[in-house]
Amino acid sequence: MTDAYPLHPQTREFLDRPCRMLIGGKWTVSEQGQTMALLNPATATHLIDVPRGTPADIDHAVRQARRAFDDSSWSRMRPRERQNLLLKLADLLERDAEVLAELECLNNGKSAQMARAVDVQLCIDFFRYMAGWATKITGTTVNPSLPLMPDAQFHGYIAREPVGVVGAIVAWNFPLLLACWKIGPALATGCTVVLKPADETPLTALKLGELIQEAGYPDGVFNVVTGIGAEVGAALSAHPDIDKVTFTGSTPVGKLIGKAALDSMTRITLELGGKSPTIVLEDMDPMEAAVGAANAIFFNQGQVCCAGSRLYVQRRHFDRVMADICSIANGMKMGNGLDASVDMGPLISAKQQARVQGYIDMGRELGATIACGGTSSGPGYFVRPTLITDVDQKCPLVQEEIFGPVLVAQPFDDIEDAIRLANDSPFGLGASIWSNNLSQVHRMIPRIRAGSVWVNCHTALDPALPFGGYKMSGIGREMGEAALEYYTETKSVLIKV
Ligand code: NAD
């Protein structure tokens, strides 16, 4: 099916040569020479084979990352040079943006146009933003009191040092972007990285490896091991010589990783699942609210950790907003993400398609109303954008992360009701409030238990704004100055002068 869409010559060339992993600056097959097949989600046909790494490959990569961390060409590199390398890397991403976007589309199913405008552009912006921080990682001085030595003079200071070797494990929904959110602060602070991309979507991580080499990073600073989560992901997160694990994925796997990390006191950042509310107040224009709510859930086929997957609309506008969302959803063209006229691509896999369809069918069985959508189609892994109403707050469709283009909506009567419903979730990643009543909005913001609150927009991300979750949505933050804290250790120094 991809033959129907002309690919960039470099995308073609990437797909035509054998795929290798990057370990210690060398492109390598897996220790046992095993490979695994990737499918194109739009066609359910074979795309490419990639190495199926093993725990021995992880061990090799961690040793190479450790060696690179200790090596003076990286550990003693001046901040200005780390800044310039990140800027160079951003330029290379910009140069190859079309190729990266096409690879993301072929591997994940998402629209290539969107991948260029959103995924790849955010990576470029984020590397440039993080490049600026490389020269601004500073400490503070302290004038110590020490009562037992009243006559002595002291100089005290607090320094920030790179945490060391970072094991990064990411999900498949934004393969390049999730990796860059981890690699950016790691490279700015002087850490080294072993990246385990999602089983299904390693292609842009491997392309990024090529660009990191071309930018001139020392060998071993960045390594990629492809393979299965339970095999190489587990080996990476439990490796005793990793200083930090940074994970983006589901809450159940995040818990496993957190527990394994604690055994060796490995530092952790966990970016996990969500079930984010979109709250529409009655002063809002219903059509504007419907467009916002539809984008909040249907962007990236609903496979967004902070997707607005629960919709609460003040009762006066409920029916009107539902009707408008249905007309938007019914007008969405489904198809191959290489086709620029397509609004929605396939889900990542047959497994994900079955899971999402299973939730829709459960809604039907529980007596909910499928207001629009509700069906799957093939041969790719398509699910039509779906709106479900007449659901109870305790229903699994409202409480559990579906991770597909499925919106569940309920009316509310007053603001207290809206806040209670919004917070009635194990997750706390994002929330959006749609209203121009500023006083009301400002009263609501502090009461919403979520790491990001958007007003009159949703999933609006900026490199300077930290992103992460309350409650079961994770531990730690990515992006912004806050991210640096999670890639550095604090050292207190006291000198008797
Ligand atoms: P997942 O947890 O199944 O897999 C995520 C990664 O972990 C993959 O690389 C996988 O190979 C690896 N993995 C699987 N089992 C492992 C194990 N036992 N040990 C170590 N690694 C293992 O999640 P997914 O289905 O790929 O992604 C969807 C989830 O990711 C959703 O819950 C979504 O909300 C979440 N997500 C969160 C954010 C965020 O920033 N909070 C962003 C994107 C996605």
UniProtKB/TrEMBL annotation:
Instruction: Please give the PROSITE patterns that the UniProt record associates with this protein.
Output: ALDEHYDE_DEHYDR_CYS (PS00070), ALDEHYDE_DEHYDR_GLU (PS00687)
The entry's keywords: Oxidoreductase
Q: Which residues cross the membrane?
A: none
Residues at the active site = E271
Q: Name one GO molecular function term.
A: oxidoreductase activity, acting on the aldehyde or oxo group of donors, NAD or NADP as acceptor
What family name appears in the similarity comment? Belongs to the aldehyde dehydrogenase family.
Its protein name is Aldehyde dehydrogenase family protein
Naturally occurring in which organism (per UniProt): Halopseudomonas formosensis
